[in-house]
């Protein structure tokens, strides 16, 4: 099967478009790829074997090689005229924005109608409506701009340091340090 190289959006550009707005709605898609049906003619390509029979997916599975690209393409097709203007989509994370409460509410209404028309299901427990700031892809966006989520930095700061070269070498094929004494020439 040919690889689909459809690109994901540039995260930095997306965050810059969000930053500076006054109101946001952050929505999360439910079961991500599983909402996309697989064409019956293509289902045999997803076949896997179990001890007593074979199975094929009817809906796109997380592990399929082209699933991320297919899903992003599908989201862009659904929200094509709203992307960059009132909605940002990164996989199953949707950000609706506006510089006034009414504008953001109207944008949300249009976005939710698209979800309804396309039979997209949202995970309401992870949705936040009409907020003045929020976390998107590890960054805090607000009317003040953009900053890194401090909780992510705290997690990194709490990691224990790598103390030995053996630990470092476990992540590499080549030694991190070499013993200089072995390389000295004898005279």
Structural write-up:
- Keywords: Nucleotidyltransferase, RNA-directed DNA polymerase, Transferase.
- The structure is a single chain.
- The chain has 187 residues and is α+β, with helices and mostly antiparallel strands.
- It is built from five helices and nine strands; from the N terminus they run H-E-E-E-H-E-E-H-E-E-E-E-H-H.
- The strands form three sheets. A four-stranded antiparallel beta sheet has the order 4-5-1-6, with helices on both faces. Strands 7-8-9 form a three-stranded antiparallel beta sheet. Strands 2-3 form a two-stranded antiparallel ribbon.
- The longest helix is centred in the middle third of the chain and has 17 residues, at 101-117.
- The relative contact order is 0.18.
- The model has no long low-confidence stretch (mean pLDDT 85).
Helices and strands in order:
Blueprint: H1 11-18, E1 23-28, E2 48-49, E3 54-55, H2 67-78, E4 87-90, E5 93-98, H3 101-117, E6 128-131, E7 133-136, E8 139-142, E9 145-148, H4 150-157, H5 165-169
């Amino acid at each position: 099967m040919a690889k689909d190289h459809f690109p994901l959006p540039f995260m930095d550009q997306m965050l810059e478009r969000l930053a500076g707005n006054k109101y946001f709605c952050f929505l999360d898609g439910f079961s991500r790829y599983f909402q996309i049906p697989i064409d019956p003619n293509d289902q045999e390509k997803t076949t896997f074997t179990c001890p007593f029979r074979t199975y094929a997916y009817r809906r796109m599975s997380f592990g399929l090689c082209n699933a991320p690209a297919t899903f992003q393409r599908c989201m862009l097709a659904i929200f094509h005229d709203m992307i960059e203007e009132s909605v940002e989509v990164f996989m199953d994370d949707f950000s609706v924005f506006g510089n006034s409460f009414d504008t953001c509410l109207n944008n949300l209404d249009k976005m939710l109608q698209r979800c309804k028309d396309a039979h997209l299901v949202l995970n309401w427990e992870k949705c936040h409506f009409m907020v003045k700031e929020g976390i998107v892809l590890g960054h805090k966006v607000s009317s003040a701009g953009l900053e890194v989520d401090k909780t992510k930095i705290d997690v990194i700061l709490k990691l224990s340091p790598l103390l030995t070269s053996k630990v470092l070498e476990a992540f590499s094929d080549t030694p991190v340090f070499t013993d200089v004494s072995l390389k000295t020439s004898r005279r």
